[in-house]
Amino acid sequence: MTNGRKTIGAKLSGLTITIAAAMVLSACSMAPKYQQPEVFSEDAQFRYNNTNHAQIRAYDLGWQAYFTDPQLKQLIGLALENNKDLRLAALNVESVEKQFRIQNAERFPGLNVNGSKSRSRSAADLRGQNSDAISQQYSVGLGVASFELDLWGKIKSLSDSALNQYFSSREARDAAQISLVATVAKAYYAERFANEAMKVSQGVMESREKSLRLASLRYQHGVSSKIDLRQAETLVESAKADYQAQLRAREQARNALVTLVGGNYPSQLATASSLTQQFAYDSLPAGLPSEMLLYRPDIRQAEYQLKSANADIGAARAAFFPSISLTGNIGSGSTSLDGLFTGPNRTWSFMPQINWPIFNWGATKAGLDLVKVRKEISIVNYEKAVQDAFQDVSDVLAANTTLKAQYASQSKSTTAEVDRNRLMQMRYNQGITDSLALLDSQRQSYAAQMSLLAVQQQWLNSHVDLYRTLGGGLKAYSDGQVPTIQNTQP
């Protein structure tokens, strides 16, 4: 009995050593060493970058601190909590995480406990003279089922690939959150500016209706022609049509907000701030182009995809070499439950298997070529993500600077046009000028006011885009104190 126990112990010790050695060897990998592609030169710079603006970076600035409008912050909070697209992105992260855990578990042997009982009756002609008609067996064991020794790092490479896929899904979720914050802000501004445009259209419509009444009286008294009357009617109806267009834009912006917040649009909203005080900062530093690699989740997502493709090459290379799988079991068996755990009834088995590919070289080589091409695709996607991000930031910086100057000029022009229209109305009322000059003045004044609103909306949207493109929108609150609200009127 003692010798039997020593033999079983020696076998079990050998199995343990073999598994431990396999786990040590699994640290090896045939994947090529990862190198980050070079995408920026050392002297790469952004134009229109406010390099002297020593402020907190967008990545570290929480959206609760950047946006200062209580109503907008309420809507952003609801969207982050209830938006269906963001929820799907979060569930995708969870799904990929579970896939990684499954793949990573294959690097370690799985131990299974099994137990069984069997009871049977033998035919009289088939059993011995002193054998019982009814027999029973009990068995219990602890086993390893088909554990592959990772001699060439295939399992490790597949695990690394799955891990980077998980990291990539997390970055995709972060990118979705940043995009959601920006989209809610733009939809909010679209609704606010549609309301402002409706007010302008309403004022113009009332003014034109007064002019129409005056033109009707002048026509009735033979002072003006019917052409003047029809032109006044045309302008009134045109103002009414513009009002309906702005009403449609407002309702569509509201519908977009309802969808973005998950359909739970609040009946009570916080008090809205002035459109001239929407941001804590009127500009944000872009830094160096290379810093986008740290702050942009879409770029990090593309890089994790590249790392995953790089790890797949290691798994494809390992497929050329033989694989060894181990199956083993130790336990005990007996015809009675009392004798199940006695020494003489111990059992064990050890069944190594080797699989060496011989006649599938072509398919294995094609598999390796495929993952290499996929890595090249991932490199191109990464470089494209960086280039698109560079253009994104450059466009926003240019827009942020030029829209400020454009708004200043447009504001002066609108003030002059509104005043000119007031003076023209006075001259028309006194009979100094004709209706054609008045109508032309009204059209230009109205167009100038609408253009001013459009430029102001673009300017606010450019601030949202600047915050988004520089990686802002992930944090709700900034590290440190909330900055002082500044007047963001250009």
CATH top-level class of the largest domain? Mainly Alpha
- Give the oligomeric state: single chain
Described by the principal axes of the CA atoms, the overall outline is elongated
| CA-based gyration radius | 38 Å
CATH topology term of the largest domain: Outer membrane efflux proteins (OEP)
Membrane topology: Lipid-anchor
Protein name: Efflux transporter outer membrane subunit
Main location: membrane
Pfam families: OEP
How would you sum up this structure, described in words?
InterPro entries: MdtP/NodT-like (IPR010131), OMP_efflux (IPR003423). The chain has helices at residues 2-25, 63-66, 70-82, 84-105, 154-220, 226-260, 292-295, 297-318, 361-429, 435-469; strands spanning 111-121, 134-149, 323-334, 346-355. Strands 1-2-3-4 form a four-stranded antiparallel β-sheet, with helices on one face. α5 (154-220) packs antiparallel against α10 and α8 packs antiparallel against α9. Residues 1-12 and 481-487 have low confidence and may be disordered. The chain folds into two domains: 1-30 and 111-124 and 132-149 and 324-356, Outer membrane efflux proteins (OEP) (Single Sheet); 39-107 and 152-322 and 371-469, Outer membrane efflux proteins (OEP), CATH 1.20.1600. The protein has ten helices and four strands. With 490 residues, it is α+β, with helices and mostly antiparallel strands.
